[in-house]
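User: Hello, can you help with two protein structures?

Assistant: Certainly.
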Amino acid sequence: MITPQKTITLNRVNLENKCYVVTLVWTNFGQQTNLIDRAPYSLMRMFKVKPMRPEDFVFATELANTMNWNMATEDFQFMKSLEPDGCFILFDGSKKVGIATCISYGKVGWFGNFIVREETRGKGAGSLLVKHAVDYLHGKGVETVGLYAYPNLIKFYGNLGFRFDSDFSVLHTPALDGVSAGALPIVGTENIKCIEKFDRTCFGGDRQKLLESIILEEGNLSYYVSEGNEVVGYVASTVYETMAWVGPLTCQEGNVDAAVSLIKAVLAKLAGLNVYVALPKKQGAIAQLLSSVGFKEDFSVARMYSGPVAAKNCIYLAESLERG
């Protein structure tokens, strides 16, 4: 007896500059029985992207830490709290093989935490995952998507429509020495709206949900500088038990003195901790300050954008590589 079949043309794919039509023939039992046209066997592989669930946090953390990202499940919980539908798992059939996260800030979005298992790379799965996240952001009204790319991925992202903007250094000191600093006002609930408004003018997007989750969290640090009644700069730092990340910082272009005073104010509270910071390489005065207190470059990344560049020329420290 001949089993009834149906033919489904899935997609056109480009492999080594040749276009193949991938067609699967399925039986009425849902089993794949044949792959026709001229597509190679490897294209039978079925990649798909699904929303990340809490039960995926352990997998996401373990995969991320194969890259020495020093992440915990709480990092993905935090991302889900900020952007509940913006965290993704890549599947090869039923096997989890990749992760990515993104966050929307109005007209600006950010992409990060992107990793695909090594044995799955070079097969189109990573491109699928990036495009899925970018499409999600566009659906939220985002016009500009930013990311930080490791040097070996600049060409990959370029092929997906991202353009180089500037080079960043990720600096680190394993045990920060004591730093002297003058007293600065603390950002609190009474003035955070002014900080958010100032941040929008520099970053180009509305980071309210991110800033409030950091600045208003007990144990974190935040300071600002004003001239007259106008904010000219602020800094925040996320502080953990043994380590801290300094950023975001945005400061009026050219106001290096304000930026230095803000950074010193935070560093003065972080003595003995393992401290990280990411800044544009062109910010020589800030890099010199950090070097003088023991920071050294761990690695570099390139900031890239898809869509119009929204950020203005301000003095800047990244909040993180995954959120901008």
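That covers the first. Now for the second protein you mentioned:
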Amino acid sequence: MNIADIISGFRVDDFVYNEQGSLGPRVQTSLQLFYVYSGHASVSVDGMVRLVGPGEITLLLPDHVELFRFAQNEKTHHGYCSALDVELSEKQQVDYQKLTTVFPMSGKIHELTDWAKTLGARTDRPALNLYDQIAYLLFYEFFNIAGYPEQLAPLPESVLRAKRLIDEKFGSPLDLTQMARAACITPTHLIRLFKVHLKTTPVNYLWDVRTEHGTRLLVDTGLNVAEISYRCGFSAPYHFARRFKARYGMAPGAYRRRQWMR
């Protein structure tokens, strides 16, 4: 599989930002994997925010305006792998746009970035060739994590039914039995299909949807955290705060203050 129609080279590197560090605004010029080792980053792409926590990775596309804000109370160690001067086909542009979310990093990505670091200062041809091959493998591993190209295949009708229920009724009490009933299959079968096609479980998908809606309400409304929690289907504000902090590395209130200060 080709990453892009044309690539002039690769760059793999990492940086440590101090507390309250930032980068940008800038226009992305490469096809880039951005990942966080420790700390966290709020990545705004054309005004849409992605929160990248420790051990998470996201894909950045060329020709978009980006602004990075790093953790307020700790240093953030992040890395990137850039495919330089890329030209993407129309299909690649459409496909990759569907992959611009946040995914967990795999052990392979950690290993590959470590290998790339050992080769970064060398200029001999064998080392340069190996460096490029490692960068290719980083992209391939990301696509594997994201389920590409399988992720872009049509989802089974049973999965679509369950997703539709969750997306529409996330604010109401839902359990696996109700999801399976909507999908017209057994709970065990529904879990298997979600893992195959969405790389998660139905219940985790539900929690992710609730957390994402809560994040939007934090930024776009003046509702307090308790009201947001209940509107998004959490049984208590504590549950929302715990889920939010586990995913994004900060409390909901701290995230809101940071976004409102922009």
